[in-house]
Specification:
Distance between the termini: 52 Å
Structural class: alpha+beta
Strand order of the largest sheet: 1-2
CATH topology: Rossmann fold
CATH class: Alpha Beta
Number of strands: 2
Length: 85
């Protein structure tokens, strides 16, 4: 049995932004749908994942701008390269 969580830590968790907002890019629509389906099932009472946008094709500057706007810190792409520019 794990020790009880300190009261301060519980308050920090309750007040923290507990949603991981994602932009999903994939090579084909079937892959995008599968990734979104898997992501939507992830989470617990403290943290959850939310797909903000899902589309097909290489990530572009607009995708990066959207990810920044929703507080994104990393970009992952399924079966796609990253456009350099």
């Amino acid at each position: 049995m794990s020790p009880p969580q300190p009261q301060l830590q519980r308050a920090e968790i309750q007040n923290a932004d507990n949603e991981l907002r994602l932009v999903v890019k994939a090579d084909v629509s079937g892959s995008a749908e599968a990734v979104v389906g898997a992501i939507e099932g992830v989470g617990n009472p403290l943290v959850k994942a939310k797909v903000v946008q899902s589309s097909v094709g290489e990530p572009c500057e607009a995708d990066i701008d959207l990810a920044k706007a929703i507080g994104g810190k990393r970009m992952f792409s399924h079966q796609q390269g990253i456009e350099h520019g």
